[in-house]
From TrEMBL:
PROSITE patterns according to UniProt: ADH_SHORT (PS00061)
Organism for this UniProt entry: Nesterenkonia halobia
Coiled coil: none
PANTHER family named among the record's database cross-references: DEHYDROGENASES, SHORT CHAIN (PTHR45024), SCP2 DOMAIN-CONTAINING PROTEIN (PTHR45024:SF2)
Protein's UniProt name: SDR family oxidoreductase
Region called Disordered, residue ranges: 295-315
Length: 315
């Protein structure tokens, strides 16, 4: 920014949705630090203004579009906001999100629609409008969508969120094919970090408390669980946004704390043939042994918390 050395994202313009706080703010600040001008988006005007101020105070360029992600109207306003404020758009990070956790029988239609609306529909409309802009203007754009371990493994009480986050990865697999010719990349980052979204999870309490106190997060969290601060996730986002990542598309990259992972896309783990097709009898004869050999686990298996990291009232 003030330094004479060229930064990787100098001259680029980014939109980061839901960037008033948490991970989105961390992505926005890192993109700005790497030279990009950033459009902050949030539903919270105060948080958005504070985010803009923090970037400008550090010598970066930022402006705010306060609007709820989910509609085409907001998606268009974000692209237009970038062009009006900074003359172009190169990078989109679709980070805005909410939770409405309940087990299946307690989950209302409203809980389901709200989460799908912000995460899945919000990602769809924002990416569609950004890609339209990239194609019309010959921009080799960078799209970074945000997934979750829940979308990869499933989590008790998160039907709506699992559907949205798995759906985002499904869209990315499709978009990587559709966008390749235009030179636009699209990937999913699966973050894990101490934010408002995770601070109430008892399992993470010792890590969140350390983070709040400005103390180092215990190595168990940073390495074994891949759980650290929001800043730990932003390097991957900034790299995927850069020229250096022009050959990375359609990938799902997990990051948190000291850990980085590449997720596989689903592939068959067993293939069998039955001449003439699979009657019920043929299935009954063959499937039990096949499943016994290849059964897939569901849910994420977390290691037991070491005793010294368990808080007294953690359930
Ligand atoms: N924190 C984690 O460990 C974790 C793990 C996996 C995935 N994620 C994902 O990362 C993203 C950010 O999560 P976070 O932990 O920083 O959460 P957060 O609640 O701290 O921040 C979310 C931000 O999005 C904003 N927002 C909510 N609805 C919006 C809308 N309709 N339009 C615009 N902004 C909106 C909120 O005001 C808030 O500023 C989410 O997509 C979340 O699902 C987080």
């Amino acid at each position: 920014m003030t330094s004479a050395a060229r930064t990787p994202l100098e001259g680029r313009v980014a939109v980061v949705t839901g960037s008033g706080q948490g991970l989105g703010l961390s992505y926005a600040r890192e993109l700005a630090r790497q030279g990009a001008a950033v459009v902050i988006n949030d539903v919270d005007q105060q948080a958005a203004d504070a985010a803009v101020d923090s970037i400008v105070e550090d010598g970066g360029r930022a402006s705010a579009v306060v609007a709820p992600v989910g509609s085409t109207e907001t998606a268009t306003a974000l692209v237009e906001g970038a062009v009006e404020a900074f003359g172009r758009l190169d990078i989109l990070v679709t980070n805005a999100g909410i939770l409405r956790d309940r087990s299946l029988l307690k989950m209302t239609d409203e809980d389901f629609d709200a989460v799908i609306g912000v995460h899945l529909r919000g990602t769809f409309v924002c990416v569609r409008e950004a890609f339209r802009h990239f194609k019309e203007n010959g921009v080799a754009g960078r799209i970074i969508t945000i997934g979750s371990p829940t979308g990869q493994y499933g989590t008790f009480g998160q039907t709506n969120y699992a559907a949205a986050k798995a759906g985002i990865v499904g869209m990315v697999r499709t978009w990587a094919q559709e966008m390749a010719r235009a030179g636009v990349t699209v990937n999913t980052v699966v973050p894990v970090a101490a934010t408002a979204m995770t601070e109430t999870v008892p399992y993470f309490r010792a890590a969140v408390e350390a983070e709040r106190a400005g103390e180092p997060v215990p190595a168990f969290f940073r390495r074994d669980l891949g759980f650290g601060s929001a800043a730990d996730v932003s390097g991957v986002v900034a790299h995927l946004a850069s020229d250096e990542a022009s050959d990375i598309s359609g990938q799902v990259i997990g990051v948190g704390g000291d850990r980085l992972q590449i997720f596989s896309h689903p592939q068959p783990v067993a293939t069998e043939y039955e001449d003439g097709g699979w009657t019920r009898e043929a299935v009954a004869r063959r499937l039990p042994a096949l499943i016994a050999e290849h059964r897939q686990p569901v849910g994420e298996t977390l290691p037991p918390l070491p005793e010294e990291l368990q808080s007294q009232d953690a359930s």
